[in-house]
Amino acid sequence: MFDKEPGKVQLKFEGFVLDNLKDNSSPPDKSKGIILGSQEFIQKMKNILKNKKKIIEIKKTERFANRPDLSEIFADVSDKEKRNQKIILSNIEYGYTLKEISDYINVHYSSLSKVISKDKKQCDQL
Fold it and tell me: What one-character-per-residue DSSP string does 84-117 give?
């Protein structure tokens, strides 16, 4: 894409980044994940990464690059039971930390830990 010589590649990449920063006055929204690019490119990468979240050799940020925002996950919460289900989903399925979830829903992370522990105990009894 840039060049075959490493020195030229670095210079061209730096120019590419600087040009992009000039075109976009605000920095990229990192809350969306680590994938930067057009919506089409991001969607293509999400499809590729969809089944990679179980492979622990891949860094967590890369495994969960296609996870939905917490605002999407908690969008239809209407009661405590539904909220607790979304807490479990966010943590176990999408890899959000208890701190990230607690900051979003404004509940102390120790309370979230109890919700998840209770769920695990119920699953163990099955």
Answer: HHHHHIIIIIT---HHHHHHHHT--HHHHHHHHH
- Tell me if 69 sits within 8 A of 31, measured CB to CB: yes
Alpha helices in 24-108 (DSSP H): 39-49, 60-63, 70-73, 80-88, 98-105
Cα gap 106→44, rounded to integer Å: 33
How many other C-beta atoms are found inside a 10 Å radius of the C-beta of residue 57?
Answer: 6
3-state secondary structure of 23: helix
Reported as a single tens digit per residue, the pLDDT across 14-25 is 777 777 666 555
* Closest to 16 in 3D by CA, of 31, 4, 1, 29: 1
Taking a C-beta distance cutoff of 8 angstroms, is the pair 24, 37 a contact?
no
pLDDT digits (tens, 9 = 90+) for 15-74: 777 776 665 555 555 545 566 667 787 777 777 666 655 666 667 777 777 788 999 999
